[in-house]
């Protein structure tokens, strides 16, 4: 007899459909065949399944059993097929009769006594179940909370093989798991760290506020013990809270890597990843025979902190250049190409020299000029160009360390400034998606640009969104949504066209920028970085125009362009 149970194949952070087919033959010489490009973790499942069935009160159904995992040309490397194979074996062996097995996706690893253990990729599988129109998902109880965030899917948690059998047979009703997302965010979206804990370093806090407001990458340079790591750990406390969409994207990555705690449903706070400088390229960027997301993707919508930046392998550092620009990682393989999201904020720290005390006023530096130059040369020019802000973090004086008063700006104060600046940017770039002339609107309604049907509906929805934002700077009735809407949401991601539009300078500003370009030898990319930072500084002051002092502050954040 042949049976069929539906499961999933985890590819990167996405899931694709998988059919588990089992044929039980009455004749034969007593053999078990598992086909369908199964890796070792899947091939070893036969021993676990046999023991789990026996210890759960079931018998091994026949002398000859063939298990096929389709599609056969896709690699399977997970213990999550234990439960669907076991159920398919029972169906084919006529020890289980069920008319609802076709309506569920099944996943789970089996212990020898029949217990169902947690697996990776429950969230992606729940999203696949909804996409396929399945009724629900049967999975380990420890994975139920993360899968339950997907609406429209019935999530059935099981702790033992016998529970899954009883549910499918209609003999054991199990309640689907429900998750209140508002409650999850209210309970989990808080931080135990605060910038008020950092004594001194008000100039560094100012730079971090600018970085958070515009989503700029930042590099901190200073002797050991000046608070660089403390500052980096507290950066997420001033970033905007995760939106439901951002939380779902980040959670999907952690689910695919199996990094969610048992019972955890969502990532409610922005992640901070701090890989050691000995981390390999594959661990940082992602890779493997079946590619897995690396540290840069685990920091998606969060902070990637690289301490002791020059100590990282030169090859490893060069591999993050493309993700910093494109905000995703592409890992090609012969059989497929994986694409992982990597919208990160890079925060890096380094010493000014090999011994670390070149800029310390009280400790002598023992490094030669050649040693210092060679140390700085470990960071390539193109990588430095992609880091917007370079700041010096000096040692904190004893008096500030022992001051019993408040520790300067708190995370709440800094976050209020960041949220206000982000709101300005959101409205600005939403409005920039519209064309403001009646002629362009008429052109879009005629010829090849005719905006009818669904396109017109999108335009009307976009106008409503802009109007709801409360901005009165532009006439909503005369704006026309472009057919290729901009994805810009922060100043750091402004295109060259948007820089020309929103970063216009007066005569004094032009003269200042020309002098900086000439004396510092700024590249074209550094030129754009300076204007983006200046735009963010202006937004923090709620200034519609760039002033010379905004530009001057932005220029002084290009520390490595001036050397040390």
Structural notes for this entry:
The structure is a single chain. This protein has 564 residues and is α/β, with parallel strands linked by helices. Among the domains are: 2-168, Ribosomal Protein S5, domain 2, CATH 3.30.230.10; 189-412, P-loop containing nucleotide triphosphate hydrolases (Rossmann fold). Helix content is 39%, strand content 16%. The chain is built from 24 helices and 20 strands. The strands form 7 sheets. Strands 11-14-17-10-18 form a 5-stranded parallel sheet. Strands 1-2-4-3 form a 4-stranded mixed sheet. Strand 1 (2-11) and strand 2 (14-25) form a beta hairpin. Helix 2 (45-55) crosses helix 3 (82-92), helix 8 packs across helix 23 and helix 23 (524-540) packs across helix 24 (548-556). It starts with a strand and ends in an 8-residue tail after the last helix. The model is unreliable at 435-440 and 465-486 (pLDDT under 50).
Poorly predicted spans: 435-440, 465-486
The CATH homologous superfamily of the domain at 189-412 is termed P-loop containing nucleotide triphosphate hydrolases
- Tell me the strand percentage band: 15-25%
Using DSSP, what is the number of strands? 20
């Amino acid at each position: 007899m042949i049976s069929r149970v539906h499961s999933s194949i985890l590819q990167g952070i996405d899931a694709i459909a998988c059919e588990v087919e089992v044929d039980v033959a009455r004749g034969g010489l007593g053999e078990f065949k598992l086909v369908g490009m199964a890796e070792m973790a899947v091939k070893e499942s036969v021993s676990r399944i046999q023991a789990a069935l026996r210890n759960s009160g079931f018998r091994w159904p026949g002398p000859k059993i063939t298990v096929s995992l389709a599609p056969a040309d896709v690699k399977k490397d997970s213990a999550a097929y234990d439960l669907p194979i076991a159920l398919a074996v029972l169906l084919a062996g006529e020890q289980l009769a069920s008319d609802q097995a076709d309506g569920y996706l099944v996943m789970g690893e089996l212990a020898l006594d029949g217990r169902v253990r947690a697996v990776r990729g429950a969230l992606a599988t729940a999203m696949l179940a909804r996409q396929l129109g399945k009724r629900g998902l049967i999975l380990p109880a420890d994975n139920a909370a993360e899968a339950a965030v997907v609406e429209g899917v019935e999530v059935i948690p099981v702790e033992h093989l016998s529970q899954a059998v009883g549910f499918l047979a209609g003999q054991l009703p199990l309640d689907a798991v429900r998750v209140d997302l508002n409650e999850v965010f209210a309970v989990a979206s808080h931080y135990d760290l605060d910038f008020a804990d950092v004594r001194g370093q008000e100039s560094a806090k100012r730079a971090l506020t600018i970085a958070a407001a515009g989503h700029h990458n930042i590099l901190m340079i200073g002797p050991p013990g000046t608070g660089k790591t403390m500052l980096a750990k507290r950066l997420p406390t001033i970033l905007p809270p995760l939106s439901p969409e951002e939380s779902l994207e980040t959670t999907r990555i952690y689910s695919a890597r199996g990094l969610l705690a048992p019972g955890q449903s969502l990532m409610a706070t922005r992640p901070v990843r701090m890989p050691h400088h000995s981390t390999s390229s594959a661990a940082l960027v992602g890779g493997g025979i079946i590619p897995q997301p690396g540290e840069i993707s685990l920091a998606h919508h969060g902070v990637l902190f690289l301490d002791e930046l020059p100590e990282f392998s030169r090859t490893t550092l060069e591999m993050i250049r493309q993700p910093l620009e494109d905000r995703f990682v592409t890992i090609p393989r012969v059989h497929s190409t994986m694409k992982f999201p990597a919208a990160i904020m890079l925060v890096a720290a380094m010493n000014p020299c090999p011994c670390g005390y070149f800029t310390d006023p009280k400790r002598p530096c023992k490094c030669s000029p050649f040693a210092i130059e060679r140390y700085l040369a470990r960071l390539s020019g193109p990588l430095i160009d992609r880091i917007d802000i370079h700041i010096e973090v000096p040692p904190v004086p004893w008096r500030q360390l022992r001051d019993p008063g408040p520790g300067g700006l708190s995370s709440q104060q800094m976050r209020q400034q960041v949220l206000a600046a982000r709101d300005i940017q959101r409205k600005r770039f939403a409005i920039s998606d519209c064309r403001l002339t009646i002629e362009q609107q008429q052109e879009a309604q005629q010829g090849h640009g005719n905006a009818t049907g669904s396109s017109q509906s999108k335009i009307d929805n976009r106008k409503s969104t802009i109007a709801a934002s409360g901005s009165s700077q532009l006439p909503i009735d005369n704006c026309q949504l472009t057919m290729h809407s901009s994805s810009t949401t922060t100043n750091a991601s402004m295109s060259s066209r948007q820089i020309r539009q929103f970063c216009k300078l007066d005569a004094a500003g032009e003269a200042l920028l020309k002098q900086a370009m000439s004396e510092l030898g700024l590249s074209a990319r550094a030129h754009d970085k300076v204007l983006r930072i200046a735009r963010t500084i202006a937004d923090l002051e709620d200034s519609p125009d760039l002033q010379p002092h905004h530009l001057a502050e932005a220029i002084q954040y290009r520390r490595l362009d001036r050397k040390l």
